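Thread title: Can someone regenerate the structure for this chain?

I was given the following input by a collaborator and told the matching structure tokens would be attached. They weren't. Posting the sequence so someone can regenerate them.
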Amino acid sequence: MSAAIAELPCLFCSETKFISIEELVEHTKSEHGVSLSELEAVSLPGPFLAHLQDKIDDIQVENIIDFSSTRVTSLLEVELARLRDIALADHESEMQTELGPVKCILCNDMLSGTKEDLLSHIFTSHGFSVGLPTNLVHITHMLEAIRATLKANTCIYCHGQFKAYQQLRSHMRKRRHLRLDPRDARFDAFYMTNHLAVTKPTGATAPNSDSDSSSEYQEPTMAPEHVKCLYCPADLPSARDLDKHCIEAHNVDLQEWRGGWRSAGLTMYERISLINHIRRTGCTEMPSKEAFAGEGMQLVPVVAGDPLLCEPEWVGDDGEDSDE
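Best answer:
Regenerated them for you:
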């Protein structure tokens, strides 16, 4: 299986491609007068459309309007059965053997081990979740495909494009886009639930309305998030107000602390862990690095949605995990 993820091609003008099946169906109906609405329920539209495109020259129909009703259903069941057999064999193999080495999607670490080991690193170290290991297949190809998308400075969730990799990383942290777009059909083939059913499960998530990959992504205007004090229940309007409050109320100069973090060369993840450590322990003196780094790494937020963990001034964005 190729590591590349393919966009969905129009069957009648193959140079036109789409990310979601809904966009493709709308295009086919408006531009070519052909209704392929039944494809919206297909569990694996990408692989199936590629197969259908290979077969289209052999399909003999008197009227192109009859195309979907006469041929799609029978071809669908045969092709999805073939893909299911491949996925089941690969899924069983991946559960029994070690994978890798494959480069992490968000840092330069080379990952090897079980499927659970690879996904554990990505979630524990970076907060990126792609799903349950038992529901994933072709995992190394999936990770390579995600990494290639990020390397192109494209958000994996909203498909916004950025001039620089660090702008992308900052965006993904701030907007909590460290996950896949559930309606991005290019990744359907990596989930076993899609292989085990001809049609998609009911209750599918609605497509992301903020997606716009046609031009450089523009950050939306968002309401400011209040910041909870590190030491007391006080709720401050901003991180700058937190600095002032902590000097006056707790005799702690957080701005001076952050300067020390930069001097010590703390990575983004060590800074996140340190913020969580301070919140958890209430320490008013800088702890030793062993308390919050290495085996003591604490990346799960103490405060849900903690704005400090998305503030560049606090966690930095020093490029330790870029490709350059």
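The first strand starts at residue 8 and ends at 9.
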